[in-house]
Design brief:
3-stranded parallel sheet; 5 strands
């Protein structure tokens, strides 16, 4: 029996964080053993925000190097840049034509951005349709995502269903899955909000590129509370966030992590969580820095990944053209 197909991606809109590693890359590394996996750097999606071109280029190389350093295997998985496969943009237009304005305007990401800023691009509005194209191009069965992206997988299914209803079975209906632990890592200074690549407080975020001294310093400044107990519960978001990070780094359940800190204070929790992160992140960071310095090697792997991805994407788009009546170039 052939393996199910898995697709997932990250945007190079900033430096990768510990949250990106726990919520995405670590799970991808483990899942690539059981799925035919496709992993993308979603650089087209990055253009929905105002980002410096040199910074974007550096982020793309950094993310690709981090993927490799963290254990994603270009022999086992397809690893590529979204913009290198033109079928993403082509299918996205067709997805636009099968999406209702009302359902697109209800997407949380667009609604939140629109509430804060009047100058919202059409690209941000059409973000879910490009994401749908990303997923559907590869006959994807499983999409590992954070909890904030589940809504986008759902609209992808709606669009695919609408297309299939009109033209017959064309697209596989993907299923979004989130990790049982660590699906959403929160900020160290504001544990009620997700740890983000870009923010106002650098101490809120652990970056993969942070050195060990910086990681330890940021954890020691992490916000906890005044309850003086180490327990995973809604009333203690800061403590719960640290326990989540510790448990993932140590491959323990939350219950086991709590037992590790019986009789301990918050200082121990912060220090030992930092040590657990440092133990895991240090070899990844070192390898990432080494790979990042060799752009010709990364370019070669990007090209190989794009060629493999394009072969699958072209077949899907050809099928879509045939179904809709568009005439492919011959």
């Amino acid at each position: 029996m052939s393996k199910e197909i898995l697709y997932s991606a990250t945007k190079p809109t900033g430096r990768l964080t510990l949250g990106n590693y726990i919520g995405a890359i670590k799970n991808w590394r483990e899942m690539q053993e059981n799925y035919s996996s496709v992993f993308a750097i979603a650089d087209l999606h990055s253009l929905t925000i105002d980002i410096d071109s040199k910074e974007l280029t550096d982020n793309i190389y950094s993310q690709f190097a981090t993927f490799l350093a963290a254990g994603l295997d270009p022999e086992k998985s397809i690893i590529y840049c979204q913009s290198h496969v033109k079928e993403h943009a082509e299918l996205a237009w067709i997805m636009n034509c099968f999406t209702y304005f009302g359902e697109a305007s209800r997407m949380t990401q667009f609604k939140d951005a629109n509430a804060k800023n009047k100058n919202i691009s059409v690209g941000l509005f059409a973000y879910p349709m490009l994401m749908a194209a990303d997923i559907l191009l590869y006959n994807t069965n499983v999409v590992p995502v954070g909890v904030d992206q589940i809504q986008h997988v759902e609209i992808c299914r709606d669009i695919a269903n609408r297309f299939n209803s009109k033209y017959g079975e064309t697209f596989v209906l993907p299923k979004g899955v989130t990790p049982k632990t660590g699906a959403k890592i929160m900020g160290l200074q504001n544990p009620t909000k997700k740890m983000a690549k870009s923010g106002d407080n650098d101490n809120d975020v652990i970056y993969i590129e942070d050195d060990n001294e910086t990681i330890m310093r940021k954890f020691k400044r992490a916000v906890t509370d005044s309850l003086n107990r180490i327990k995973y519960c809604e009333e203690q978001p800061g403590v719960s966030n640290l326990l989540t990070i510790y448990s993932v780094m140590k491959n323990l359940s939350i219950e086991q992590a709590e037992k590790d800190f019986e009789g301990c204070g918050y200082g121990d929790l912060k220090t030992r969580t930092a040590e657990a992160v440092i133990e895991v992140i240090t070899p990844i960071r070192s390898k990432m820095i080494e790979l990042k310095s060799n752009r010709p090697y990364l370019d070669e792997l990007m090209k190989k990944g794009a060629l493999r991805a394009s072969k699958i994407a072209q077949e899907t788009l050809k099928k879509v053209y045939n179904k809709t009546g568009l005439v492919p170039l011959k």
